[in-house]
Amino acid sequence: MSTASGVTAVVLVVVTAVLIGAFGLRLSRTTSDFYVASRTVSPLWNASAIGGEYLSAASFLGVAGLILAYGADMLWLPVGWTGGYLVLLVLVSAPLRRSGAYTLPDFAEARLSSMTVRRTASVLVVLIGWLYLMPQFQSAGVVLRTITGAPE
Q: CA of 143: how far to CAs of 41, 57, 103, 110, 152, in Å?
């Protein structure tokens, strides 16, 4: 792929994402519309979104790196976090939905009536999100450098 076509492809993806976001913003009237699509998303689409999150650059590159560094025993890691996802879906998703909360800190405060627990949950969500985001940015940089031919 040439540099010009790579840059064009990246620009098209960004413009498309912005247009989809602008269109979605026009459809959002309430908090429920924005956060959970008025709870009208079918299980198939919801499963697709969870799968997209699960099959990320961190997963692909991280597992490949672990297997390279530590051997085939690391293939059990995806089995473990798949089991964790199932536990999350069974034990957390249904009560979270029934509570009407939009975030885990909201749910923790509603369930335990403690602002300290809410703050702790908020800090943990941000910390875990940050740790997950770093390999995503690293992978995005590698992909963009490959597509655009930018120097290291």
A: 31, 10, 31, 42, 12
CA 98-101-106 angle, 5° bins: 135
Residue-range domain boundaries for the chain: 1-40, 41-148
Whether the Cβ atoms of residue 145 and residue 152 lie closer than 8 Å to each other: yes
pLDDT at 15: 96
Q: Which segments in the chain show pLDDT lower than 50?
A: none
Q: Is there a contact between 113 and 122 (Cβ–Cβ < 8 Å)?
A: no
Q: Is 105 exposed, middle or buried (0-12, 13-18, 19+ CB in 10 A)?
A: buried
Q: CA 92, CA 147: separation in Å to the nearest integer? A: 40
pLDDT digits (tens, 9 = 90+) for 80-108: 888 888 888 788 777 888 888 888 899 99
Tell me the two tokens of residue 16: 């498309």
Distance CA 19, CA 33 (A): 18
